[in-house]
Amino acid sequence: MKTVGIIGGGPAGSACALTLARGGARVLLFEREPDREKPCGGGLTARAFRALPELARLDLPWAEAREFHLVGPTGRRACLTLDPPIRIVSRRILDRALRRLAEQAGAQIIPEHVADLARAAGGGWEANGRSVDVLVGAGGMNDPLARLQNVVLTRDERATAVGRFVRGNFAPCIVVRFFPDQRGYAWWFPRPDHASLGIELAGEHFDKELAWKLLRQFAAEDLPGVDITNGEDYGWSGPAVTRWDARVFGGPDWLLVGDAAGLADVTTGEGISYALASGKLAAECILCDDVGGYPARLHESLVPELAKSARLHPKLYRGWVLRLSILALTRSRTWRTINAETAHGFQSYLTLKRRVYRALPRVIGEVIIGT
Ligand SMILES: Cc1cc2nc3c(=O)[nH]c(=O)nc-3n(C[C@H](O)[C@H](O)[C@H](O)COP(=O)(O)OP(=O)(O)OC[C@H]3O[C@@H](n4cnc5c(N)ncnc54)[C@H](O)[C@@H]3O)c2cc1C
User: Fold this and answer.
1) Which atom of ligand 1 is nearest to the CA of 11?
2) Ligand 1, pocket residues at CB < 6 Å
3) Which of 49, 285, 346, 350 could form a disulfide with 294 if both were Cys (CB 3.0 to 4.6 A apart)?
4) What pTM does this model have?
5) Where are the strands (E) in the chain, listed by range?
């Protein structure tokens, strides 16, 4: 029986551990901070539930957001209705529940920071003195295996975020705000007893002062009645990979999954669904003795969508595109449907352009008459 070591018990590591343990592998899942509230919106789209159907059966205290407000660079506000709703959950709670699922399936959770990583003399790996045949890097942005293999994301492959967990009970309505001349957005994701307020801006030179200024402007103008002073600040970075051809996802006895592999949507910042999907895919490759086939299978399944998003990203963030799009959202039912389906992943980026062109006459008509 193969022993697999997994560094990191986030969504990617836990999905991998769960699938492996169910498939009969011996699994050691290392997690250094089991109780941490991760800096994340915690928004779960339909794509995440498709990636790991077990999510729907977890009885978690999530907020169900059926309303999604988008505020354009000029302050114009549009409202999407989400069906199904986006579920928003604390990452401390979600990650703990996913690790518990993996544990129930037979994975061993080891609450340790993996600092000691080396190739074993007779093949395989030593992780904190434990021998494993295959190693999975699921440690997020600073994964130690990615570092060891020299494939950690560079500065220009990261987007930086700052924000605050604001204490209180808030209406379950997501608000997102775009700003002139900035690629990125500010968000308000309310959860049952607090909300995640944040802003992520792409680009090599993240200006923290500017980010906080925009965030305060967002709170003052777009979150009426919300007191954001009561909370805890965070700062973090997420993947913003735009070139996928040369990315390394693994070797003959190691693999990278989730953020450690750069697998997040550069346009929306969504990463949980890709973490779950890549964790499962890695496990399937290990179980059928095809570790070396993992990169090719990623390139067939998840990468085309992410690569298309990366190509669309600069175009979608052009000022006039954002302004027109928000205007169309306020007036066209068809445009709202296309956007809501794209947010959930029902509409792929790969066929988005074709659908938009086909829908354009109807959207223009609806903008003129208002629907
Ligand atoms: C501000 C922000 C907001 C976001 N909002 C959303 C959102 O609303 N919806 C969405 O889908 N995505 C969102 N994302 C993206 C999402 O958070 C990530 O894509 C997702 O968490 C990736 O999961 P992962 O398992 O790959 O990594 P992580 O969630 O980062 O998990 C890695 C785990 O590895 C552990 N670890 C790291 N190093 C070691 C070590 N050496 N030894 C032991 N353990 C280790 C860490 O403690 C951590 O638990 C957001 C990201 C950011 C930065």
Assistant:
1) 25
2) 7-13, 30-33, 38-43, 113-114, 138-140, 144, 161, 198, 200, 236, 238, 258-260, 264, 269-273, 275
3) 285
4) 0.96
5) 3-7, 26-30, 43-44, 63-71, 77-88, 108-110, 117-119, 125-127, 130-132, 134-137, 158-167, 173-177, 184-190, 194-201, 231-239, 250-251, 254-256
